[in-house]
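Entry:
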Amino acid sequence: MRAKHNRLLKINKSYLFDELKQTKSLGNYTITIAQKGGRKERQALIELKALEVTLTPPRHQSEGLEELTPITLTALLAQEINTNLEEPLQ
């Protein structure tokens, strides 16, 4: 599952992206970013973070469906570091 929205967490009523950014790094890895369109192939330094979280269900749920319950999962954040790009990989 890929996170598009900054989900509310059950514990501390904080948000997923904020908690992940504050989590201790598991390590850094260098990966090759393939050429695509006008982008040249390059090397990127990626930092990896992980955190077990419990997501709350959306506030607005569709009528007629089962009531959703919180779900616990391990969230991962892989983001490019030490770059001067306007939009680092994430």
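The mean pLDDT is 85.
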